[in-house]
Design goal:
Blueprint (H helix, E strand, L loop, with lengths): L2 E6 L7 H8 L5 E4 L8 E5 L2 E5 L12 E4 L4 E2 L1 H13 L8 E3 L3 E2 L2 H14 L11 H10 L11 H22 L7 H15 L3 E2 L1 H10 L4 E4 L24 H5 L10 E7 L2 E3 L12 H10 L11 E3 L1 E2 H11 L3 E5 L9 E10 L2 E3 L14 E9 L17 H14 L3 E5 L7 E3 L6
Helix pairs in contact: 3-4, 5-6
The protein binds inosinic acid.
């Protein structure tokens, strides 16, 4: 049975949660492979709404084993809190498996994230201030602390001492903040170890055996293509490999075992945090997209920046992720517009780009002029009740097929509302 990677094809918040939730039942394992509690989506369970930040959404189904892979960074406070909230709602966390190799977010990572943003001032990244970047920094500096280190107090203390020798200098001398003692952190973190211990496993082994046994695996990407540390709009990115390739690194399952890659795109585009955004709308159209689309972050509550669909980005996402399918979300939001624009290329300094330009400065308003195609809309027609492609107004059908042509991959899933059943399947198969 095949495995599928699900990735955001824009700047995040594309509705990955809804699509994961929809297709997850076809899978035996749902694996987070990067990021941490900077992600967030709301899942509906019966009459309850739950915001998940760290635990894979497969937790909602008792036929699925949810896995937090080695590429994830784990804040144990958040993990334990999320587990408790799920249990309180009657959702068992017993099946949750956590990689021993995943790195742990420490209190000083969170302090340093905030302090660094403050120091950057107007050049700040706009991070979620969850300590994600500083934790990955330590991973690559090889002074990170992993989940398995919690198993042995002596090792945990030793590693903490090494890390604190540097962190306390930075906290106190550069940022004028208080430092930490080893005891202080041990007192808080070692009890977490007792809760996490039964869930710890060698997850690469587990997943490779599962694949060999014909199990279906879904790799659930967090953040998105343009927030990827390598392929995103650096430095306004997150600190992990969000793209499909990251699924292999962050889980220990090799690339020959990835069979499908589905990219998720909104029918328009949004971004939170700083950084270039060629189709950003600064006028009332942008505000209307924000209000009708309910564009406020689940994790930080921040208002999202909004713009028209950008096909240059969609093609780029198709390339760097090897997309086999695309899911288009929030098509219903566009019912509020007479005409709809799609960016097909960029014009900048006398050059036309139908691909992502080499120099990022091209993407800023000072240089870039998006080349738009303006399509007739389906103004005022409520499409939230449509359940087949044929039921959509002709102009909505045309919009979807036009995007499909521009991106070069089938739009196999189209979402017309937030609920699970407000979805049109156009040939999607996880088989
Ligand atoms: P960090 O991941 O907290 O370091 O933030 C780095 C950048 O990624 C910032 O622009 C954040 O707003 C953005 N970011 C991180 N997680 C998400 C997400 O789940 N959705 C959208 N943007 C995100």
């Amino acid at each position: 049975m095949p495995s599928t990677v699900l990735v955001g094809a824009q700047w995040g918040d594309e509705g990955k949660g809804k699509i994961t939730d929809l297709i997850a039942q076809d899978f035996d394992y749902v694996v987070r492979y990067q990021g941490g509690n900077n992600a967030g989506h709301t899942v509906i369970h019966g009459d309850k709404k739950l915001a998940l930040h760290l635990i894979p959404s497969g937790i909602m189904y008792d036929t699925i084993t949810p896995v937090i892979g080695n590429g994830v960074v784990i804040d144990p406070r958040v993990l334990v809190d999320e587990m408790a909230k799920l249990e309180a709602q009657g959702i068992s966390c017993e099946r949750l498996v956590i990689s021993c190799d995943a790195h742990i977010i420490m209190p000083y990572h969170i302090d340093l994230d905030g302090a660094s943003e403050k120091r950057l001032g107007k050049n700040k990244i706009g991070t979620t201030r969850r300590g994600i970047g500083p934790c990955y920094q330590d991973k690559f500096s090889r002074i990170g602390i992993r989940v398995q280190d919690l198993l042995d107090e002596k090792i945990f203390r030793q590693k903490l001492e090494t890390a604190l020798a540097e962190k306390n200098e930075i906290l106190t001398k550069i940022y004028g903040m208080p430092g930490y003692t080893v005891d202080q952190i041990c007192e808080e973190y070692l009890p977490y170890a007792e809760i996490i211990r039964p869930h710890m496993a060698e997850t690469a082994h587990l997943l490779n055996r599962a694949y060999a046994d014909g199990k279906n695996i879904l790799f659930e990407g967090a953040q998105a293509t343009l927030l990827d540390i390598d392929h995103g709009t650096y430095p306004f990115v997150t600190s992990s490999s969000c793209c499909a390739g990251g699924a292999c690194i962050g889980s220990g399952v090799g690339p020959k075992k990835v069979d499908k890659v589905i990219g998720i795109s909104k029918a328009y585009i949004t971004r939170v945090g700083s950084g270039p955004f060629p189709t950003e709308l600064f006028d009332e159209t942008g505000e209307k997209l924000c209000q009708i689309g309910g564009e406020y972050g689940v994790t930080t509550g921040r208002k999202r920046r909004t713009g028209w669909f950008d096909a240059v980005i969609a093609r780029y996402a198709t390339d760097v992720n090897s997309l086999t399918d695309m899911a288009l979300t929030k098509l219903d939001v566009l019912s509020a517009f007479d005409t709809i624009k799609v960016c097909v290329a960029y014009k900048a300094d006398g050059t036309t780009y139908d691909y992502f330009p080499m120099q990022q400065s091209v993407l800023y308003p000072k240089h870039v002029e998006p080349v738009y195609e303006e399509l007739p809309g389906w103004y005022g027609q409520d499409i939230t009740g449509c359940r087949s492609f044929e039921e959509l107004p002709a102009n909505a059908q045309r919009y979807v097929t036009y995007l499909e042509e521009l991106c070069g991959v089938p739009m196999s899933i189209v979402a017309v509302g937030p609920d699970r059943d407000q979805t049109i399947f156009r040939g999607w198969s996880s088989k």
